[in-house]
């Protein structure tokens, strides 16, 4: 089980849970894992609650006990995974010094995050490329928090003179985010992956983006 599994409710709850509550949380986690796989396989629009119930090996009615509809399931996955990503990121940032170093950590952990969870990446890309979903995602606090976090790292690097100050921080973060997603997308789609460790591409992304490809 990797750092981005559906188990955060157990991790944050320091009070011992009774058996009924443990079973409730386990069923919910089962449903979220099943939904993540089905959404990744079929896409948001083709996936059904019935598909998810079959994948989770529960009755359809059981899924509805935990989630009102397909939208609620989809956005619960997004919220859960991004929350976990930001938590792991905050731990990694503790020992970092300087905005540029933090940007490097952000890129590395983003690549690591998507490399460990291919299904979630496919779901995330659906949200980034389909306007009807993207507009709904934009209203999620945690989704915006991730974007704002990235922007603040760029601003910190700008204030230190490590990144150009004549460009909008949000534009820089948006473009860099697109590069990260493109790298992951191409890596997943490659039949012969020359790069075994995706986060090992961090240095290349940093160099290409901040230094360019023009020969000096």
Can you tell me about this structure?
The chain contains 11 helices and no strands. It has 216 residues and is mainly α. The protein has one domain: Tetracycline Repressor, domain 2 (Orthogonal Bundle), CATH 1.10.357.10. The relative contact order is 0.10.
**Unreliable spans:** none
Give me the CATH superfamily: Tetracycline Repressor, domain 2
Share of helical residues: over 70%
The major sheet is characterized as: none
What is the CATH architecture descriptor?
Orthogonal Bundle
- Order of helix and strand elements from N to C terminus: HHHHHHHHHHH
Radius of gyration: 19 Å
Instruction: Please indicate the count of domains.
Output: 1
Strand content: under 5%
Number of helices: 11
Distance between the termini: 46 Å
CATH level-3 fold name: Tetracycline Repressor, domain 2
The overall strand count is 0
Main CATH class: Mainly Alpha
Shape: elongated
Mean pLDDT: 87
Helix and strand content put the structural class at mainly alpha
Secondary structure layout plus pairing:
Layout lengths: L7 H5 L6 H24 L6 H8 L3 H7 L3 H24 L5 H18 L1 H12 L1 H7 L3 H19 L9 H21 L12 H10 L5
Summarize the model shown.
This protein is mostly helical and about 220 residues long.
């Amino acid at each position: 089980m990797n750092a981005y599994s559906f188990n955060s409710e157990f991790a944050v709850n320091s009070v011992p849970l009774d058996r009924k509550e443990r079973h409730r949380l386990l069923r919910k986690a089962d449903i979220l894992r099943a939904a993540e796989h089905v959404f990744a396989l079929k896409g948001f629009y083709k996936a059904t609650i019935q598909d998810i119930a079959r994948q989770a090996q529960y009755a359809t009615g059981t899924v509805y006990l935990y989630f009102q509809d397909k939208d609620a399931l989809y956005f619960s996955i997004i919220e859960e995974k991004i929350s976990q990503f930001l938590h792991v990121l905050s731990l990694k940032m503790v020992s970092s010094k300087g905005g540029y170093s933090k940007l490097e950590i952000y890129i590395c952990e983003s690549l690591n995050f998507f490399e460990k969870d291919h299904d979630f990446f496919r779901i995330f890309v659906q949200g980034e490329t389909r306007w009807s979903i993207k507009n709904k995602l934009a209203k999620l606090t945690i989704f915006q928090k991730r974007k704002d976090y990235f922007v603040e790292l760029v601003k910190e690097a700008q204030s230190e003179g490590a990144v150009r100050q004549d460009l909008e921080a949000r534009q820089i973060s948006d473009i860099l985010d697109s590069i990260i997603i493109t790298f992951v997308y191409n890596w997943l789609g490659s039949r012969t992956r020359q790069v075994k460790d995706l986060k090992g591409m961090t240095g290349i992304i940093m160099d290409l983006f901040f230094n360019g490809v023009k020969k000096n």
